[in-house]
Write a structure and sequence with these properties.
Elements lengths: L1 E7 L2 E2 L9 E2 L1 E5 L2 E6 L5 E7 L4 E4 L1 E3 L22 E5 L12 H11 L15 H5 L9 E3 L2 E2 H9 L8 H16 L4 E5 L10 H13 L3 E5 L7 H15 L3 E3 L6 H13 L3 E5 L4 E4 L14 H8 L2 H15 L5 E5 L9 H8 L3 H11 L4 E6 L4 H13 L3 E3 L13 H16 L5 H8 L1 H6 L16 E4 L20 E6 L2 E5 L2 E2 L13
Parallel strand pairs: 1-6, 2-7, 8-9, 9-10, 11-12, 12-13, 13-14, 14-15, 15-19
Antiparallel strand pairs: 1-4, 2-3, 4-5, 7-20, 16-18, 17-18, 20-21, 21-22, 22-23
Helix pairs in contact: 3-4, 4-5, 5-6, 6-7, 9-11, 10-11, 13-14
The chain binds zinc ion.
Length: 515
């Protein structure tokens, strides 16, 4: 047999999390792993030396704001350089299809804090229409999720109320369209507009549609309105009522939810979650306002904020939410304050931090992003991160935000930080477990049958890295730093990273869910 590539002499960690690592060569024909074993006598167009290196399946990022960045620009390779070969679309339910241009434009404005500047047509009549922008233009694969924001906007615009029967029917139809296009998950951001206005009936109804296609439910839960515990309980309610596997985005294991996780175990609830394992989040300041003032289209929301009564009611609320005021400015439309803390920016402007935060939302037309450090003490954070890293229901996902001036370091570092810090240095997880949480586990959970493992017949998405040097280099001060120690990354059998350097190849495809 003639192979296109043989990766030789490496140690295989196969992504199942069960098997021990073992020495073997990997033979690739076209876009498929064709052989795993001793291939020193076989012929290949090119041999890749992996002596002393780990060969693993490509990593899968189930929550990442990368679909625009993947099309080009500074951050196009931020995930690939860490070994991420498949990235899911529509994190937090954000999406722009199928929407008429005006609504798509408004949704883009709303979500721009997570996507930066981009030159897109924002005119996609169908899910397929949107997905057609990727093949031939992306270094990694994308895998669609149903974008609940677009589903709801299409049916009822920015209305901040429960759906009528008729509107719900329209939402079911759009949800079905995405599932037919191969979406493996119904994805929601229940703190964000317009999804925050969905009631339990809407969530259960749409989840039943998703479940009928074998898809799962994933949500950024309602932290802001009902609080974290109740939001977890609501998610379990959805799992039970709709009989659907559920997944909670960007979470952590601490005392507040430890007993809920015990209940999940006891009652056999089909629930997983993901974490990026840094003690800070990233979102827009808009989310810190009282929820009633976040409702409506961006233009409606901004007009409402001009009301002095709204400002007066918001300031004490913000003061409470902002704690130490150590949030870092990641993006403002004007370019002001980048990399400064909220406190520093406020001092510079002669305002209180809450005044600056409120006024900034208006002045930047809602286009602003901040790093939000956890307000708990650092020693407590470390305990929480360590508990999270070892939890059997936890998988790794970056929640990376790109194309903004000062992003969160997770976007360039999440996957390799897990290998370096929680694996090699702290020895909290074995290499087999670590790889499983980044490949086999997300693939199984989100229904990617031919990815996430090294085995004959599966898709040739592969990473070769040095276990002694693999590391994140992105920091809070310098977040845009590519990963170290990742030597080769192949996507669909094509090298995108070769000897540590980008090849410029764009072999990424749209992967589709199959039962
Ligand atoms: Zn989120």
């Amino acid at each position: 047999m003639q192979f296109d590539y043989i990766i030789e002499g490496g140690t295989i960690v196969d992504g199942t999390g069960r098997a021990k690592s073992f020495p073997a060569d990997v033979g690739i024909v076209g876009d498929i792993i064709s052989a795993v074993g001793k291939l020193d006598a076989a012929e290949a167009n090119q041999r890749i030396d992996a002596l002393g290196k780990i060969v693993s399946p490509g990593f899968i990022d189930v929550h990442v704001h990368s679909e625009v960045a993947l099309l080009g620009g500074r951050d196009q390779l931020a995930g690939i350089q860490q070994g991420v070969t498949t990235q899911l679309t529509a994190p937090d339910g954000f999406g722009w299809a199928p929407l008429p241009p005006k609504l798509a434009q408004e949704m883009w404005h709303y979500a721009q804090f997570g996507y930066g500047e981009a030159d897109l047509s924002l005119n996609w009549n169908s899910a397929e229409d949107y997905l057609s922008i990727f093949p031939g233009h992306i270094p990694a694969n994308v895998y669609p999720q149903v974008p609940h924001c677009a589903v709801r906007l299409q049916a009822m615009g920015w209305a901040a109320r429960p759906a009528t029967d008729e509107e719900l029917k329209a939402m079911e139809k759009t949800t079905r369209e995405w599932l037919e296009a191969g979406a493996g998950c119904l994805c929601l951001g229940l703190d964000y507009q317009p999804s925050a206005n969905a009631d339990l009936r809407e969530l259960v109804t749409l989840s039943k549609v998703a479940a009928s296609y074998g898809a799962i439910y994933a949500a950024h839960v309602r932290y802001q309105t009902i609080g974290r515990r109740k939001a977890w309980e609501e998610t379990i309610e959805i799992a039970q009522q709709a009989e659907i596997p559920v997944h909670i985005s960007h979470e952590r294991v601490d005392d507040e939810i430890a007993d809920i996780l015990d209940r999940v175990e006891r009652e056999g609830i089909d629930l997983t979650f993901e974490s990026y394992l840094y003690p800070a989040g990233m979102t827009h300041m808009v989310l810190m306002l009282p929820m009633e003032f976040q409702a409506g289209s961006p233009a409606e929301m901004l007009a409402n904020l001009e009301n002095p009564m709204v400002r007066e009611k918001s300031l004490p609320y913000l003061r409470e939410k902002l704690g130490r005021c150590d949030q870092i400015v990641g993006y403002t439309r004007s370019g002001r304050f980048i990399g400064m803390t909220l406190k520093e920016a406020a001092e510079q402007e002669g305002k209180s931090p809450e005044e600056l935060a409120f006024d900034l939302v208006i002045e930047e037309e809602g286009i602003e992003t901040f790093v939000f450090p956890w307000q708990t003490p650092p020693q407590e954070n470390e305990v929480t991160l360590n508990r999270t890293a070892v939890h059997p229901r936890m998988m790794i996902a970056s929640d990376g935000v790109y194309n903004i001036p000062h992003p969160h370091p997770r976007g360039y570092g999440c996957f390799v930080q897990f290998l370096r810090h929680f694996g090699r240095e702290q020895r909290l997880v074995s290499l087999q477990e670590a790889i499983y949480k980044m490949s086999g586990f997300p693939a199984e959970r989100f229904g990617l049958k031919d990815r996430g493992r090294i085995a004959e017949g599966l898709g040739a998405d592969l990473v070769v890295f040095n276990p002694e040097t693999v590391a994140d280099r992105s920091t809070w001060q310098e977040p845009v730093q590519p990963a170290a120690g990742v030597d080769w990354v192949l996507v669909n059998g094509v090298p995108v990273i070769e000897g540590g350097n980008p090849t410029g190849q764009l072999p990424g495809r749209v992967l589709r869910h199959s039962l």
